[in-house]
Design goal:
This protein is an alpha/beta fold and 262 residues long. Helices cover 34% and strands 18% of the residues. The protein contains eleven helices and seven strands.
Length: 262
Amino acid sequence: MLKVASSGVTPKTVFIGGGGELATAREVLRHTSIERVVMVDLDAKVVEVCKEYLPEWGGETVLNDPRFELVVGDAHKYLLETLEIFDVIIMDISDPIEAGPGIMLYTKEMYQHAVTRLNQPHGVFVTQAGTAEAIPAAQNASLDSDPSCYTPIYNTLKAAFDCTVPFSSNIPSFGGDWGFVMAFQNPTGGDESVVANLEQDWKVPANDLIDGLIAQQIPGQDGLGFYDGITHVHMFSLTKPLRKSMAKDKRIMTRDNPIFMY
């Protein structure tokens, strides 16, 4: 998010789907360029509980920030109905579990609509995407389907956006690597020859470029606790087993044919 889609354009408006613990909003609001954040979460109780018991995750500081707007409601419905355009859309939502509240936010139809809610040509969409662990077939033989939705989410975003970049981060409380996918349009329009370069630019930027952007966007602080240039390269370097598994999985998630985790 430091510079939208590597373009040098500084983001000002952000939509967050979910995010009830307020930590995502906390990190977004640390960027001095941000002028407006809209967060839509289904459960007001989650926000209240986290405000009381996990204030360090955002709490009153986020809720009282004049740039922040909390909407208690359905993020899917909100995005379908809003006329507002955002520089960044972040989906900090529950996994695509059968009968879960977030499944429609992972569909091709939703991603295609998200394109229209982004400030083009430099808007960025990013979503959490479940576990980023490859599960060998021998261990998966007893299951009806692959319990990981990481690749289907990546494939589905790739069907809606020009450029799609998967990445992961180790989350100790989750017991392993967790997946995320970022997507954006090709700012050159129809020139498809540049797509691979645009995706690659995100994976291997110069360390000092990332560190410089952090210092520019979050001045007066000792950087960030986790993220810097070296960490960035690690996050965008998926393991070999996962890359091999992704190459074989062609599934796409649609409204009529959703794919469930677990």
